[in-house]
Amino acid sequence: MPLLVFPTSRLLWVRVAALLFTCVTFSVAAHGAYLSGGIADWCIFCWAFSFACTLLVLLVEQFGLQARAPVSWSNFPITVASYAALLCLSASIIFPLYFIKDSQLQGEVRSHRIASTIFSCLAAIAYMGEVCLSRAKPGEVAGYMATAPGLLKVCQTFVACVIFILVSNPVSYTHHSALEWCMAVYCICFILSMAVVVLCVGECTGCLPIPFPKFLSAYGLLAVIMYLSATIVWPIFQFDKHYRHRNYKLANLITVAVLTGLNFLLYLADLAYTARLVFVTV
User: Fold this and answer.
1) Torsions phi, psi for 206 (to 5 deg)
2) Residue 41 shares a structural domain with residue 132
């Protein structure tokens, strides 16, 4: 029996495409785009991390090592693809805004930056295709991360990370206790959502003192209530003239308010899906 097997499947080719696109993206950016600063480092990280994780998934599957992997292989690949899709999508938006728009650079440097942007967009599309191909179909038995609630957990944690970046540069939640409550909401819900992801990928859901579905339902309801409060409190204490702090970036504050509302909707949809899975199917 050959050591390597190359099944002809759409999922394989989509992963190979994502691997090539991310490789070209960070190679071109590192070779001739002349990048510097934290934003450039973030974009390079997004592409390199996605490339490394996809390469790992391909190697494990082609060598048939899924059974020996210390993670749930029904959850790990789609979790990686989901985070990679969001990372590459964010880099595809941020990179041209900072390094192409209003840039005075011409010639080879600008061409390298445009090429990196194009291949980053192609990588994001490839990862989205992988998620679509890997997600659970109606009636199909699959890992939790391949279901709609699992994918929503990925989105929730990613949005929370973006919020953390925006409220930390500069710190914009310390001038009132109500805003500190909002920060507590972001942190608590992020930790719990990430804990669910880690438990599912690590096949440790049985370690909880209560049944996993009941934990999801209780946590989902708590997160919806907490994010609803943050969605109301953040705009009031950031934009009302009695509480507003003039030293903060208005664009960051508005973005945080929008992302807070977005995460509230994500948690609400998550709760609805979880309630349906727990109560309707039982």
Assistant:
1) -75, -10
2) yes
What is the pTM (predicted TM-score) of this model? 0.89
**Same domain, yes or no, for 189 and 82?**
no
Distance between CA atoms of residues 200 and 74, nearest Å: 9
2 and 133 both lie in a single domain:
yes
Q: Structural domain of residue 161, as residue ranges? A: 147-281
Q: Are residues 68 and 3 in the same domain?
A: yes
Q: What CATH number does the domain containing 42 carry?
A: 1.20.120
Distance between CA atoms of residues 58 and 62, nearest Å: 6
**Helix or strand or coil: residue 217?**
helix
How many domains does the structure of the chain reveal? 2
Residues of the chain with pLDDT under 50: 1-2, 280-282
Please name every residue paired with 96 in a beta bridge, in sequence order, or none if there are none. none
CA–CA separation, 194 and 187 (whole Å) = 10
Express each pLDDT in 217-261 by its tens digit.
Answer: 999 999 999 999 999 999 998 887 766 666 667 788 899 999 999
Rounded-to-integer distance, Cα 12 and Cα 26, Å: 22
Residue 276: the pLDDT is: 75
- Rg over alpha carbons for the chain, rounded to the nearest Å, is 21
CA-CA distance, 208 to 199, in Å (whole number)?
A: 9
Strand partners, 171: 168
Which of 143, 161, 189 represents a domain boundary (last residue)? 143
